[in-house]
Design goal:
Layout lengths: L2 H4 E5 L8 H25 L7 E6 L2 H7 L11 E4 L2 E5 L10 H20 L5 H11 L5 H4 L2 H4 L1
Parallel strand pairs: 1-2, 2-4
Antiparallel strand pairs: 3-4
Helix pairs in contact: 2-4, 4-5
Length: about 150
């Protein structure tokens, strides 16, 4: 199944727009997922059994309100629940992220979704740890035990 058939993107702006900037976001998001999907699926030896939606919120306050986390910190810009990846728009990522870091986090959340598809009872620490690892959001120094780094 192609990544475009697997994923639907939903613009959660009050006035959804199909302007050139949002078209670029859709394109870049699909490309980021496409370039990592095969590797992740191969690593976990699992073909997904269902489709997923990616909801893109226009800014952090709107995202935080949508997920019922009004006091969430500025670094919190994406989550996964009920076959939906919810992220802030890369065009307006807030003070602690960049366009690219939001795209990378989508890879992390895609992995969380896939691991949950394998085992819905997998603990959050495991799914999010694997997601961060697959999105290359953790350095080797962070991953490896101190004894292996010496």
């Amino acid at each position: 199944m192609s990544i475009k058939k697997l994923i639907s993107i939903v613009d959660k702006s009050e006035a959804p727009s199909k302007n050139a900037s949002m078209n670029k976001v859709y394109h870049d998001l699909f490309e980021e997922l496409k370039s990592n999907e095969e590797r992740i699926i191969t690593t976990y030896r699992h073909q997904h059994s269902q489709k997923i939606a990616i909801e893109i919120y226009p800014d952090l306050p709107t995202f935080h309100q949508a997920i019922n986390e009004l006091d969430a910190p500025n670094w919190f810009m994406g989550t996964y629940e009920d076959n939906k990846i919810k992220i802030v728009s890369p065009l307006n990522p807030g003070p602690e992220h960049t366009y690219q870091s939001v795209l990378r986090h989508a890879i992390s959340l895609f992995t969380v979704w896939l691991v949950n598809d394998i085992n819905p009872l997998a603990p959050k620490w495991l799914t999010h740890g694997l997601g961060g690892h697959e999105a290359k959001q953790m350095s080797q120094e962070y991953i490896l035990p101190v004894s292996l780094m010496n």
